[in-house]
Amino acid sequence: MQLINEMKLEFMSKSNNEAFGRVVAAAFASQLDPTVEELADIKTAVSEAVTNAIIHGYENNPGIVKMVCRLYDTGIEIVISDEGKGIADVELARQPLYTSKPDMERSGMGFTVMESFMDSVDIASEPDKGTTVTMFKNIKS
């Protein structure tokens, strides 16, 4: 796998920045000439990861969401990270319908959605230190 290009972005943990992050990732991925479906998959997964950072990581408090995108000859790697609350049990959080915010009527499908739209999803988290979600999408050339 050969690295072609890389970009880094930081933005405030405000809900309206979810759309910003999604569009930036899709624009960067467009250098690989993905299909419309591949772009939609990337935007959906990024949206879920950024929303998780804002709602669960920072619990709607001020913070910084970081996004790193790397283009490879085979696809795109997207890393979304926060320095928020963290996840005590990542495997439990990955279970469909699990939510730590049932009072907010959250669906508990964020990680499941990411996993269904991306080819790989890795979650690293430590309580009170934050969470990093690394996703990869193969782009057919």
Automatic annotation (TrEMBL):
SMART domains: HATPase_c (SM00387)
GO MF term set: ATP binding; protein serine kinase activity; protein serine/threonine kinase activity; sigma factor antagonist activity
EC nos: 2.7.11.1
Catalytic activity: L-threonyl-[protein] + ATP = O-phospho-L-threonyl-[protein] + ADP + H(+); L-seryl-[protein] + ATP = O-phospho-L-seryl-[protein] + ADP + H(+)
PANTHER family named among the record's database cross-references: ANTI-SIGMA-F FACTOR RSBW, ANTI-SIGMA-F FACTOR RSBW-RELATED
Family to which this protein belongs: Belongs to the anti-sigma-factor family.
Protein name as catalogued: Anti-sigma F factor
Species this chain originates from: Ruminiclostridium hungatei
Lineage: Bacteria, Bacillati, Bacillota, Clostridia, Eubacteriales
Gene: spoIIAB_2
